[in-house]
Automatic annotation (TrEMBL):
Residues 28-38 have a biased composition (Low complexity). PROSITE patterns: PROKAR_LIPOPROTEIN. Keywords: Signal. This is DUF6993 domain-containing protein. It holds the Pfam family DUF6993. Residues 1-25 form the signal peptide.
Amino acid sequence: MPRPVHFAGVAALACLVLGLSGCSAADPAAQGQQPAPAESSSGEAQAGPAASRIPEADAVETQLAALAAQAPKPSRDAVRDAYAAAGFAPESIEVSQDITPTGLAVDSIVAGAPVAGECVVGEVRSGAVTVTVVPALASGQCLIGDDR
């Protein structure tokens, strides 16, 4: 005797199929979007079209590169000082934590500061520096959470 198909099961399957169809691996350019380039410490875009850099990003990159040369795993305060030396007001600088909740050192430290609706975001990871400019969050902040 065949088993009856339950409406709830069919509805769940339909939702799953529709949900997964939105997760296609389509190229963002094919959808009219441009992928954001990742900037390296050499200032070259790693992927995507060439992006115009703002002077503040270059200043942050210079300061973070000097810091990373001295301390490949800098402290939160040292990264904040590097952003301040690049010209940002200390109260506008957001920096991720430098210690995990279990007391271990983090693998990388990220910071961001707003500039005209955008954010200059920098990362120091084992002495390597990456700086990029991204849109600010709706809140006006650069990082999620309270990292000021």
